[in-house]
Amino acid sequence: MDVEKESDMVDRRHFLKLAGVGVVAFVRPAGTVAQSPLKIGSVGAGRMGSALGGLFVKAGHPVMFSSRHPENLRDLVQRLGPLAQAGTVEQAIAFGDVVVMVVPYTALEEIGRAHGPALAAKPLVLDICNPIARRDGAELVKRVEEQGGAGLASAKLLPGSRIVRAFNAISYLRVASIAHRPGGFVGQVAASHVMTLVEADGQVVAFYNQNELHQVQPGNEVEFALKTLPGRIIKGKVDSVVWAQGQGQFLPSGNLPSSLAVQNQPPGKFAVKFDVAERDRQLFLAAGAAGDAAIYTDGLHAIHIIRKVILRVGSYLNYLILKLH
Ligand SMILES: NC(=O)c1ccc[n+]([C@@H]2O[C@H](COP(=O)([O-])OP(=O)(O)OC[C@H]3O[C@@H](n4cnc5c(N)ncnc54)[C@H](OP(=O)(O)O)[C@@H]3O)[C@@H](O)[C@H]2O)c1
To answer: Which residues contact 7 (CB under 8 A, 6 or more apart)?
Structure first.
């Protein structure tokens, strides 16, 4: 029996996973007065902390900068004027409605241990900290990578805090020159997108040809293998079939719909949403990762084993990277 054509068992198809973290724009236009000033505690007042905090002060927000030696920040707060003040880490955290963490990554761990509950009580913690091997050590960088990146690692270091990672990829030398100013454009073309928000909870979606779906039901067992996770079979269930695709979409216009638009295109596929099984929810599934998937419908159980073997062999083949280097 040709497994690829067997209608009972929808076989491997490419699919996408969409996941990620949100990004929030925070800086107000430089040189304007904030309409509702926010008290900001800046934990760290080095190169990046003082550059960002300086912009927040210019935007009209009171900022308390912290140092383990607050007396060393006298020049900084004098230069920035009455909205700026210096304090200890504890004082800056207590002061801020929003707390900006802008310290070496190793210090984030330490501060999380000492001030975790105080930070968890804040409405927002901005995390600017990056793990850098030459400063924080290769071992720490490896540990952060193993946890799926700094976004996830910071969430573990500051449990319960509402964290947004921001400004991480902008040099302290550039934040002042690219801060928003009144009348400035944030994109090249007015009305074009300047930001993408991606859901924190990812979704796994697989695409199937039309006739492959005739026996698929919500709750059917699912297995899939991602190229980013060689040798690993991830389990789940069918959540739902999205019974619509781009080809069924017509924009409002004065014209009657034309069948040529459909005839001239290859048939589109339908998306099936998967629910990842409890045992695999902790796995790091990279945004945009692709792979192969199988749905096991209720009929012809005897041949499911063939697809299971093919899927597993394919998953182990993902270990092969044949670039001849
Ligand atoms: N520099 C940039 O362009 C840039 C860009 C994006 C992200 N970042 C990230 O921002 C963070 C800070 O970078 P930076 O360049 O501003 O560093 P920096 O100039 O060395 O300043 C570090 C700050 O952290 C404080 N600090 C260090 N250890 C501490 C501890 N154990 N407890 C409390 N405070 C501590 C220091 O205060 P005291 O020593 O006075 O106590 C100082 O204010 C890093 O994670 C970095 O990766 C930097």
So the answer is: 211, 212, 214, 215
Residue 108 Cα to ligand 1 middle (Å): 10
Residue 16 CB-half CA count within 13 A: 8
From the alpha carbon of 72, which atom of ligand 1 is closest? 40
In b/e form, how buried is each residue of 215-233, taking b as 16+ CB within 10 angstroms? bbeeebebbbbbeebbebb
User: Phi and psi (nearest 5°) for 268?
Assistant: -80, 165
Tell me the best of 66, 93, 102 to mutate to test the pocket of ligand 1, counting ligand atoms within 8 Å of each CB and taking the most: 102
Please give the angle made by the CA atoms of 90, 93 and 98, to the nearest 5 degrees: 175
234-266 burial, b if ≥16 CB within 10 A, otherwise e? bebebbebeeeeeeeeeeeeeeeeeeeeeeeee
Per-residue pLDDT reduced to its tens digit, 92-101: 999 999 999 9
Domains of the chain: 3-20+198-317 (2.40.30.170), 40-178 (3.40.50.720)
Which ligand 1 atom is the nearest neighbour of the CA of 110?
31
Ligand 1 in contact with 65 (CB < 6 A)? no
pLDDT tens digits for 5-19? 333 333 333 333 333
The CB density around residue 285, as the number of other CB atoms within 10 Å, is 22
Does 110 sit in the ligand 1 pocket, CB within 6 Å?
yes
